[in-house]
Amino acid sequence: MSRPAPAALIEARIAELLGPNTARNAVRTFCQRATGGPPEALTAADAPKVLAALRPTLRTLLGALTAEHVLGEIAREL
User: Fold this and answer.
1) CA-to-CA dists, residue 76 to 6, 32, 33, angstroms
2) What is the pTM of this model?
3) What Å distances lie between residue 13 and 7, 20, CA to CA?
4) pLDDT the model gives residue 30
5) What own/partner pairs with CB < 8 Å and gap ≥ 24 does 30-39 have?
6) Secondary structure (DSSP) of the chain
7) How far is Cα 67 from Cα 24, in angstroms, rounded to an integer?
8) Phi–psi pair at 38, nearest 5 degrees
9) Which pLDDT score, from 0 to 100, does residue 4 have?
10) Cβ contacts of 73 within 8 Å, gap of 6 or more
11) Could you tell me the pLDDT band of residue 46, with boundaries at 50, 70 and 90?
């Protein structure tokens, strides 16, 4: 079984909480900001940069505990 692309995995996990459109836009925006490239080019090695960039926004939208839990789960899956 193949693993989903890192950006797809991040998007799927935050979509559960923020909805698919918000998740897609967030991943696109923060991939560009953190790596300078599109989500399709995100590698597992660059994913921690995107998660770090997402942290402040997720903490605001979800609360600190939920955001840290979600980010930790995503990091483990990657």
Assistant:
1) 12, 22, 22
2) 0.91
3) 10, 10
4) 96
5) 30/54, 30/57, 31/7, 39/5, 39/7, 39/8, 39/11
6) -PPPPHHHHHHHHHHHHH-HHHHHHHHHHHHHHHHSS-GGG--TTTHHHHHHHHHHHHHHHH-HHHHHHHHHHHHHH-
7) 17
8) -75, 165
9) 81
10) 13
11) very high
Q: How many CB atoms lie within 10 A of CB 71?
A: 21
Q: Tell me the residue length of the chain.
A: 78
Q: Where are the domains of the chain?
A: 6-77
- 2 pLDDT above the threshold of 90: no
Structure tokens at 67: 């955001």
Q: Report the alpha-carbon distance of residue 41 to residue 61 in Å, rounded.
A: 26
Q: How far apart are CA 27 and CA 56, in angstroms?
A: 14
The answer, yes or no, to whether residue 1 has pLDDT greater than 90, is: no
* pLDDT value for 37: 93
Taking residues 53-66, what's their average pLDDT?
Answer: 96
pLDDT of residue 36: 94
